Each structure stands twice: as C-alpha cells, then as structure tokens.
TrEMBL record:
Homotrimer. One of its GO terms (biological process) is regulation of complement activation, lectin pathway. It comes from the Eukaryota. This is Fucolectin-7. Acts as a defensive agent. Recognizes blood group fucosylated oligosaccharides including A, B, H and Lewis B-type antigens. Does not recognize Lewis A antigen and has low affinity for monovalent haptens.
Amino acid sequence: MSDQENRKRSYKCVTEIIRFKVAAVHLHFTKRFLLRSVVSGRKKTMSTCIIYFPLMAVLLTTSALYNAARFKPATQSSVFEPCYAFKGVDGNYDVINFDGIHTQSELVPWWMVDLRGQYVIEKIQLTNRHDYSIDIARRLRNFVLDIFPTDPRQLANFSSMIGQVCYNQAAPLDPGTFNFTCPVPIVGRYVRLIMRAGYQNFLHICEMEVLVSRPSSNLEENYFIRQVDTAISDAPIMTMTASDPLCCLQECLIRRYTIFCTAFNWVTSTGSCQLFSVNLFLNWTNRLVFTPETYFFIQNNATL
Ligand SMILES: *[C@@H]1O[C@H](CO)[C@@H](O)[C@H](O)[C@H]1NC(C)=O
Ligand SMILES: *[C@@H]1O[C@H](CO)[C@@H](O)[C@H](O)[C@H]1NC(C)=O
Ligand SMILES: *[C@@H]1O[C@H](CO)[C@@H](O)[C@H](O)[C@H]1NC(C)=O
C-alpha cells in the first residue's frame, strides 16, 4: 500500500468527522428553528427548516464508506497454488500481473471473507483479472455475492443455500472494477462469492472490497480485544487522529504488513490514535496502565 493510498484513507476518515459535525450543527439549528416556529408560528422560519432538512439528509447519507475486508481472514473452496484466498483482500489490484485468488476447477467453487464483526454492507467492489485474454476473465459468470451473519460453512447445504443476496449475475463478467450496490444495506459478517455455472470451472478474481458504512452496533470486532480505561505505555510507532476506534483500527490494519501494527491506544477526548507493534507471543500485560477515557486494542489471536 502506497503512502498516497494511506493518506487518502486518513483523509476519508477526516472528511467523515467533518460531515458528521456539520450534520450535527444543522440538526441543532433545525431544532431551534422548529421550536421558535412553534412558539412564534412564523411562516418564515418554517421555510428555513424546509431548506435545512434536505440539506441535513444529504450530509448524513453521503458519509464515507470504507473497505472492511482488507486483510481480514479469507477462505476458498480449493487452491490453485499460489493463489491463496487472502490475495482477494491483500490490497494488490494489479489485474495485468494477476496475483489474486484462484480455485481448482469445480462444479461450485467459492471464496469467502470473514469481516470479524457485524457490519452494515452497502456495496461490494469486485476487480476482475485482465491478463491473458478476455475469455479468461469471462469465466466468472452465474455468480452470487451473498452475506451471512454467522459462519455458513457449518451448514450441510452450504453450496446450495443462498444468504442475503447483495448481487447476482448470470452473464459473464468482463475485465475491470465494478461496484455492486446491495439492494438494501445488509448487516453481516461473512461475504461469499460463489459460482454455479452448471459445469466445472475455475473461480478467480483479483480483489474484493466490502464497502461498509458503520458497524451495526458500537464496535463488534472480534479481531481485536478491547480494554476500557487502559493504555499500553510503549512508545507509539505512529500517531494520528481518527474519528472513532474503528477508523483507528482500520489505520492499524492497513499497516499490518508495513509497521506490523498489532495494537493501538485510542484516546476518546482527542481522537488520538497511537499504533504499536506488540509482540503477541511475549507477555505485554505488565505494560498496561490505567488511563481514563482511553481504549486499548490488541489483535486477538485466541479466536479464529
Ligand atoms: C439449508 O439449511 C438450513 C439450515 O439447516 C435451512 O434453514 C435452509 O432452508 C436450507 N436451505 C436450502 C436451500 O436447502
Ligand atoms: C465504488 O464505490 C466506492 C465508494 O463509494 C468508491 O470509492 C469507488 O471509487 C467506486 N469504484 C468504482 C469502480 O466506481
Ligand atoms: C503476564 O504478566 C502479568 C503481570 O506481570 C501476570 O500477572 C500474568 O500472569 C502474566 N501472564 C502470563 C500468561 O504469563
């Protein structure tokens, strides 16, 4: 991941805060105008509200989406080496020198990512390969993008059952990057790409992004353990501001392979996001200090 991309991400989180702050201010003024208009019954103030309401709605609905799939655990029905499942979420979008996911030739090949938390999924961006010939890319057809709140692999009918469908397409998919917007935002944790062409074939894609708005509840990440009113006393490798712990978590995740981020402090009052590379195999608990209004998050290796 380039610095430019990292900056773009941070910028997204920042614009998101600004949007919410502006929306909050509008909400405040709308309330005041409404109260005043009720008290005074003046028509002029009511017409001001008519302008404020749609403006507020636009500001609230255009809040930035972000990719919740990057670096999350992924699996697939089989492996055509070395195109392992994680390559679908590794941030490599090079469609020419294809280095994505690739299964063996199967009747119902599939790939699935575990977001490690319940998210509100709005769109799925799929990048198809563009090497060799268009016909290779166009092997991808009769595919469904479906979403599950719990791990569907335990179900005996995994291959035939269908989760909440974000998108499906019978026609072959051309090379390129496509945004598939779910018919309604779908809350879920497991996002599956499954192909039922009716004959044996390979499933391969370059990259998938699962674009989410907010987590469905406060912070349902199982990927990191959270400790309230706690901070680690190490010197941070990087410090930045983040609008919420989830943005800070994302900043840590995108740096897992550069600074090997495994933990972070998030200070509620300032939004300070401090990233650490904590060795999870050594005992780090003696470096935790009681710090009011600070959350400490560390990668959870215990559950998978
Ligand atoms: C698959 O199994 C689940 C749980 O056992 C069941 O609820 C569902 O109806 C089944 N779906 C199909 C398509 O058979
Ligand atoms: C898909 O949507 C996201 C978020 O709205 C946007 O950033 C991205 O550029 C879009 N991708 C394409 C290929 O249009
Ligand atoms: C880690 O260190 C703390 C404090 O020194 C101690 O209480 C805890 O038992 C240790 N944990 C392990 C797994 O050794």
